[in-house]
Amino acid sequence: MNTFFKLFFEGGWEFMLLVTLSLTGVFFSAWKAPNWVREFGLLGLAFGVFGTLIGVYTACADLEQAGEISMGVLAGGIRVISISGLYGIIVYIISLIIRIIQRPRI
User: Fold this and answer.
1) What residues of the chain score a pLDDT lower than 70?
2) pLDDT score, position 86
3) Are 61 and 21 in contact (CB under 8 A)?
4) DSSP for the chain?
5) What's this model's pTM, rounded to 2 decimal places?
6) What is the pLDDT of residues 49-65, one digit of tens each?
7) How far is CA 30 from CA 21, 22, 47, 61, in A?
């Protein structure tokens, strides 16, 4: 559980919180409003991608000011940038799995 919180705060708590709220919406809508599962999953994916793009923009601005940096620092930055996007993809996959399970059988 400690690793989850570490990744949560490394990935930018603002967008990670929005993706987590979308995940909560996926589970709540699976229980109360099944037609909304896909929308909450897409919302989580959108928040994750938006968080990644904001991270890339910020990193590029910092790289421009810093000048030359080592490849290790660059790789670490790319790893951190991708956390919110990966979390958004996981939320979307969960919403797809729930929709498949809820789909009526023919």
Assistant:
1) 1, 105-106
2) 94
3) no
4) -HHHHHHHHHT-HHHHHHHHHHHHHHHHHHHH-GGGHHHHHHHHHHHHHHHHHHHHHHHHHHHHHH-S--HHHHHHHHHHHHHHHHHHHHHHHHHHHHHHHHSPP-
5) 0.85
6) 999 999 899 888 888 88
7) 14, 12, 20, 41
